[in-house]
Amino acid sequence: xxxxxxxxxxxxxxxxxxxxxxxxxxxxxxxxxxxxxxxxxxxxxxxxxxxxxxxxxxxxxxxxxxxxxxxxxxxxxxxxxxxxxxxxxxxxxxxxxxxxxxxxxxxxxxxxxxxxxxxxxxxxxxxxxxxxxxxxxxxxxxxxxxxxxxxxxxxxxxxxxxxxxxxxxxxxxxxxxxxxxxxxxxxxxxxxxxxxxxxxxxxxxxxxxxxxxxxxxxxxxxxxxxxxxxxxxxxxxxxxxxxxxxxxxxxxxxxxxxxxxxxxxxxxxxxxxxxxxxxxxxxxxxxxxxxxxxxxxxxxxxxxxxxxxxxxxxxxxxxxxxxxxxxxxxxxxxxxxxxxxxxxxxxxxxxxxxxxxxxxxxxxxxxxxxxxxxxxxxxxxxxxxxxxxxxxxxxxxxxxxxxxxxxxxxxxxxxxxxxxxxxxxxxxxxxxxxxxxxxxxxxxxxxxxxxxxxxxxxxxxxxxxxxxxxxxxxxxxxxxxxxxxxxxxxxxxxxxxxxxxxxxxxxxxxxxxxxxxxxxxxxxxxxxxxxxxxxxxxxxxxxxxxxxxxxxxxxxxxxxxxxxxxxxxxxxxxxxxxxxxxxxxxxxxxxxxxxxxxxxxxxxxxxxxxxxxxxxxxxxxxxxxxxxxxxxxxxxxxxxxxxxxxxxxxxxxxxxxxxxxxxxxxxxxxxxxxxxxxxxxxxxxxxxxxxxxxxxxxxxxxxxxxxxxxxxxxxxxxxxxxxxxxxxxxxxxxxxxxxxxxxxxxxxxxxxxxxxxxxxxxxxxxxxxxxxxxxxxxxxxxxxxxxxxxxx
Length: 792
Fold this sequence. Notes:
The protein has about 800 residues and is of the alpha/beta class. Helices cover about 55% and strands about 5% of the residues. A hairpin with a 2-residue loop joins β8 and β9 (about 355). α22 (about 570-600) runs antiparallel to α23 (about 610-645) and α25 (about 705-730) crosses α26 (about 730-745). It is flat. Keywords: Membrane, Transmembrane, Transmembrane helix.
C-alpha cells in the first residue's frame, strides 16, 4: 500500500541524510513524485521507480525487498518462508524447488514474459552444452559429494532459519550429480556452496542444477542463471550492479526498459526472479576474495556458489563463513567408477580372452594394485572428471593410441606428468583430421597452427586475468598511441579511397571539373585528413583517454519504435549533438585550409592575389564549413541516438550471433546516418551561406552554395564519416581493425577467426558461457598459455 511505502521511503531517505531535492537529483525521479510517494497520495509507484530510488539510497537487499513489497501493496516477506522445525525433529525434507511465485513482488506482464523467455533460452543453450560435452554419452560420470568440514559452513540454526531457542539438526546433503537440485531444495536458506579440486566436476554440476531447476520451474518463479564470478571486482562494482551488467551482456534484450524506467534485467534481479549460480569463486583475482565474501555476506539472496577447496578455505579463515550457507565437498572418482565408465566409451576389440576394450589392461592394473605400484600415478591422475574426460578423448576416440602407455612409470614418473600429457595431447586429438561439422564438411586445420592460435588466445586471457573470451576484447596488448595511430590512419586511408573512387568521378561528371591526377591524389589525402583528424580528436577524448572498451551495442535500429522513447534519451541526444558539433566544427576548419591548398595546386582554380582578400576568403569559408559540418554532424549523431531502440527479448545470445547482430545494427545505422549527413550538408549550406553573407557584409568575393556540389560533398562526407564512425566508435569496427585485420597480418590468428572459435566450441575445446566463449577448463587455458609462452 502506498502509505506504507511512503513511510519506508522517508525513513530510508533520512537515514541516507538526503533531502527530497537531493534524492531527486541522484535518482532521476521528479521531486514532486517523491513528495507524492512519501505522503501516500496518488497511485502506487512503479517497480522501475522503486528501483531507481533504492539505487540512489544504496539500501540493503532486505530493505530493497521491503520497498518492492510495500509498493506492491504487500508486507515484506522472506523470499522463501520455511516452517520452524522442532528442537528434536529433522528439518522438513519436502520444500518447493522454486520460490513460491506469490512470495515475490508482483511485476508487469512484460517482466514475467522476460523471465519466462530467459528460462527457455537458458534451458536450450545448456542442453546443447551438455551434448557437446558428451555428459550423457554413454552416461554421466558419478560425481558425488559429501558434507564439508564443519568449520567451512555456518551454524545449522542459521542454515535452517529456525527461531531463537530452537536447535536444528544437521542436514544430510550427500548425493550424486542427479540429486543436486533436490539437495539444494533441502536447504531452507537456499544458500549452498559446492567445493572441489580443479576438474572435480563443479561446472558440470551447475549445468545439471540449472537444467533440473528449470525443468520443475513454474511461470513467474525465479530463473537460475550461471554467472562466472571470476570476472567480478567487488571493490569496484556492487554485486547487484554486476549481475545486471552480466545479464545485459549475455541477453541484450534484457537491457530494454521495463515499465517505470529501470531495465528488465534490473527488475528481474530486484524482485528475486534471478537465482544466481556463481561459478568459480576461486578464479576471482588475488586479493579480492575477502571483499567478495564480505559482499556476499551483506546480501541475503538465495544462491549457489562453487569454488576450489583451498581458495575458499583461506577466504573463510580470513573473513567468515558464507552466512546461512551449507557447504558440500566433491569427492574423488574410484577405480570402480573408472571400470564402469571408460570401457563403455571405447570400441570393442577381439582379444585372446574374447571381446574387450583397450582399457581392460589399465582397469585391471588399477584394481589389482589398488592405487599402488605402477598404477599409483594413473590412479591419482584419474580421480577427477576433467582428466577422465581428457583420457576418454585421447584414447577412446583415437585408434592410434593405447591407454596402457599411461602405466609406463619411466615415461610418466609422476601424476603431474600424466596430467600434462593428457592436456598436451587433447588439442592434437580433437583436431586430428576429423571435422567437427555435423555434415563432415567443416574446416580442416593444421594442428600446429591451431595450437599456436589457441595458445595466443589463452595467453591473452591469462594476461588480462579472465576466462571470458569476448570477441570485442580479442587483440592482445595495444598501447594508447598505437590505437590512435592505427585508427586514425585507417580512417584517413578509407576516406581517401572514398574520395578517389566516388567523389572524383562524380565531380568530373556532375560539376565538369577536369581531372588532374596529381591534384586528385592530394585532394583525396586532404579529404582524409579532414575526416580523420576530427575523428582522431573525438576518439582520444571519448575512448582512449578513458581507457574504454567498446562493447557490443544492446540496441537495434528502428525508424518508428515507441519503446525507444526511454528515460535519459533527451540527455543522450544532447550529448551526441554536442560531440558531433565539435567534431564537425573541427572538420570544417581543416576542410577550409585543405580546400585552400587544393586551390593553390589546381591549375583550373583561382586564389585571391592580395592578403586582405585571401584572409576574408578564409574567414568566409571557415565560418561556412564550420557551421555546415558542425550542424550536420550534430544532427546526425543526435539522430543516431533517437534511432537506437532496445534489442528484442528473442535476440540470440551466442557469441557468433551477437557479432552478427552487432554487424547488422552498425551497418544499418551507418547507412542511415550517411544518407542523413549528405542531405543535411546539402540543404544546410543554403541558409548558412546566407547567414555568413549577412554577417560579413560586402565582400570582394561571393559565397555561393550549389545543390549539385553540396550533394556531392555531402555524399562523400557521409560515406567517409560513416566509415570513421564504424572504426572509432563501435565494437564491431574495433573487431574489424584490431582483431580481424591486425592479428591475421601478424600471424597470431587465422583470417577466419570466427570459424576457428565456432569450430573449437563444437570440438569441445571451448565452452559457451552466455554471449562469450571460455576454454573447456581453466587447467586447459593455463596449459595452452604456458606452452605458447614457452614456444614463443
